[in-house]
Amino acid sequence: MSGFVGVVVSDPSLQGQFTQVELRSLKAKFVSLKRDSGHVTTKNLPGLMKKLRGLNEVVSEEEIAAFLSESYPDSDHEIEFESFLREYLNLQAQVSAKEGGAGGGRGGKPSFLKSSITTLLHNLNQAEKSSYVAHINTYLREDPFLKKYLPIEPSGNQLFDLIRDGVLLCKLINVAVPGTIDERAINKKRVLNPWERNENHTLCLNSAKAIGCTVVNIGTQDLVEGRPHLVLGLISQIIKIQLLADLNLKKTPQLVELFDDSKDIDEVLSLSPEKMLLRWMNHHLKKAGYKKTVNNFSSDVKSIPLKLHWTPRIRTKGQN
């Protein structure tokens, strides 16, 4: 007599987050929703997720919809069961984190999905995406395979759609660190089957890790689905590695401006590329009359006074 199999999830780490009782219950609810609609899209999920354990008393359907829109801007995006499980876990984690933080509590509604914050995140993602699209269009526009798809339009979801077959990310990794991936190993047919697509994404993630990217929270399925926040996070790391790789005296002789005297040479050359870039930026800000020191590329560069000093410097350098 054969043993009981139960609900099987292809990702063992995902399956380990649930008991078989929970998986059967969630699968039944998901299948019921699919039976009613023919397929399940992100706009179908808020009503279902609102009733699930850990969410039914603390978030509204509107807040769940806002959360899902960060990963799936298209509300008609079709969702598979495993993606549904991941979003359920992600939402539970967000709720738990907020309830455990300052000002949180069982009685209060979490504020992490308020519309103003969601709008801000959306705007930040749009600006981030536009800069990455411009970079990709510049460096890959002459690629024999990709040039028929480029330039990418910054608005809309063309970037995430193009990511799904894995070719673009593999090509971008080779731009960042030439020769990392043997081009012959990339599946580049016009239409790829799921197995070929998964091969490309596995190659991409292994190669990204090899050049120094952190990919611990990214799986091949995330890239197949073109999940925006994970895709943008990976592209950001790849581009950063590319840009910082050129930060040395041989490729960027302008760095000689950082040396006040010969004693500074060893000190500057011993800096990491990121710290060297910060020093170069502070050097030009000081020349422009900016008094403060920039210590990072996140909170410090959001300063309006800094932008007023820095933007003209960028324009001048670009014109020259």
From TrEMBL:
Keyword presence, Cell wall biogenesis/degradation: no
InterPro entries per UniProt: Actinin_actin-bd_CS, CH_dom, CH_dom_sf, EF-hand-dom_pair, Fimbrin/Plastin
GO BP terms: actin filament bundle assembly
Name of the featured protein: Fimbrin-1
Subunit field text: Interacts with F-actin.
Domain Calponin-homology (CH): 126-243
Transmembrane residue ranges: none
Lineage start: Eukaryota, Viridiplantae, Streptophyta, Embryophyta, Tracheophyta
Keywords: Actin-binding, Repeat
SUPFAM superfamilies according to UniProt: Calponin-homology domain, CH-domain (SSF47576), EF-hand (SSF47473)
GO terms, molecular function: actin filament binding
